[in-house]
Amino acid sequence: MPSAPAPETSTELRVELASILGAEHIDDLTRLSGGASRETWRFRADGRPLVVQRQRGGDERDMSVEARVLRAVTASGAPLAELVASGVGASGASYIVSAAVEGETIARKILRDDRFASAREHLPAQLGEALARIHTIDPDGIDGVVDVDQLELYRVVLDEFGAPHPAFELAFRWLEDHRPPPTRRTLVHGDFRLGNVMVDEHGLRAVLDWELVHAGDPMEDLGWLCVRAWRFGGQGPVAGLGRYEQLFEAYEAESGLRVDPEVVHWWEVLGTLKWGIMCIGQAETHLSGRARSHELAAIGRRVCENEYDLFLALEGRW
C-alpha cells in the first residue's frame, strides 16, 4: 500500500514540482516506494498523471545519465514511460519525471492472476522484442554510460566481504573456464526482469528502473531475465512465463541476429552468482547497522537459495 507522506515533505515537493513543470496545481501526491537509492511519488500536474523519482543523499549514481539513456531508448522504439523532465531540484536532489503508465509490476500477480492470463502468453516474445530494440543502441553515444567487466566486478565485491562461500568459488571457477567470447557491445539494461516492467492485460507496457544501465554484452540481459530467482515460482525458464525458444526467436526476429543458448546460459549462471553476492551485501547493510531492516535481513537468508540454484545450473538441471 502507498505510504502517507510527511506533511512538510509533501508541501516542499509540491512546490518543487510546480516549479519544475510550470504547473499551477500539483494534486494527489502519493509516495509509492522508499528504496535505498531513490524515492518514487505519483501525482497529477494540472490533471496529468505523472511519476517522479528523486535520488537520496549518499547515492553516487548520476540520474542525468539515466535521463540521457531514456531519451536514446525512446528513439529505439522500446516501450517506455515518456520522459517529461529531469535535472536537479531546489532541494539538491536529482530527479526524473515521467508519464504514469497504468498496469502492474508485482511479479506474483502477473504470474498468477486471471487478469493477466492473455498477457502471459505474449510476454516472453514481447520481452525479447523489447531487448532487441534496446540492444540497437550504441552506448558510446551516451555520455556517462560505463563499461565494467561483470565477472571481475563481483569477484572484487565478494572478496571484500571477507567470508568464505565455497559454492560461489566453484561458480567463479566454472565461469572463468567457460567464458565465451563477447557477442557485441551495446547498451545493457542491467536489471531486466519481472518487477522492473509494467504489464497490463495485453502484455508489456513499459520497461522501468534503469538504475543499473551500462555498456556490455547484450546477452547479459537475456541471461538475467532467465535467472531462477526471477521466475518467482513460475515454471517457465523465461521470467517464470515461457520457454527459452519463445524469447530467443522473438529476439532473433527483431534483431536479425542469432542467439547462442550456451552463451545465454553462461550469463544466466553469472546472474545467479551476482544475485547471491548482492544478497550478502544487503544483509551486511543490515548487520553493520547502516540501515536496520527486516527486509534486508531476510534477503540475506536467500544466499543459500542462490548456492542451490548454482548447483542446479552447473549440473544442467534447471
Write a brief caption for the model.
The chain has 318 residues and is of the alpha+beta class.
Please describe what this structure looks like.
A five-stranded antiparallel β-sheet has the order 1-2-3-5-4. It is built from eleven helices and nine strands. With 318 residues, the protein is of the alpha+beta class. The protein is globular, with a radius of gyration of 20 Å. It has two domains: 93 residues, Phosphorylase Kinase, domain 1 (2-Layer Sandwich), CATH 3.30.200; 208 residues, Aminoglycoside phosphotransferase (APH), C-terminal lobe (Aminoglycoside 3'-phosphotransferase, Chain: A, domain 2), CATH 3.90.1200.10.
List the helices and strands and how they pair.
Elements: H1 7-21, E1 26-34, E2 38-45, E3 48-55, H2 63-76, E4 83-88, E5 94-99, H3 107-112, H4 117-134, H5 150-161, H6 166-177, E6 186-188, E7 197-200, E8 203-207, E9 214-216, H7 219-225, H8 244-255, H9 261-287, H10 294-300, H11 303-314
Antiparallel strand pairs: 1-2, 2-3, 3-5, 4-5, 6-9, 7-8
Helix pairs in contact: 4-8, 5-9, 6-9, 6-11, 7-9, 9-10, 9-11
Q: Characteristics of this structure?
A:
alpha+beta, 5-stranded antiparallel β-sheet, 11 helices, Aminoglycoside 3'-phosphotransferase, Chain: A, domain 2, Phosphorylase Kinase, domain 1, 45% helix, 2 domains, two-stranded antiparallel sheet, globular, 318 residues
Question: Which CATH architecture of the largest domain is right?
Answer: Alpha-Beta Complex
State the CATH class of the largest domain: Alpha Beta
Largest sheet: 5 strands, antiparallel
Return the average pLDDT rounded to an integer: 91
CATH topology of the largest domain: Aminoglycoside 3'-phosphotransferase, Chain: A, domain 2
Q: What is the share of helical residues?
A: 40-55%
Order of helices and strands: HEEEHEEHHHHEEEEHHHHH
Counting DSSP E segments of at least 2 residues, the number of strands comes to 9
The portion of residues forming beta strands comes to: 15-25%
Shape: globular
Q: In DSSP terms, counting alpha (H) and pi (I) runs of 4 or more, how many helices?
A: 11
Label the structural class. alpha+beta
First and last CA, distance: 34 Å
User: What is Rg?
Assistant: 20 Å
Low-confidence stretches: 1-7
Q: What assembly state would you assign to the polypeptide chains in this entry? A: single chain
Please give the domain count. 2
- Give the strand line-up of the largest sheet: 1-2-3-5-4
CATH H level of the largest domain: which superfamily?
Answer: Aminoglycoside phosphotransferase (APH), C-terminal lobe
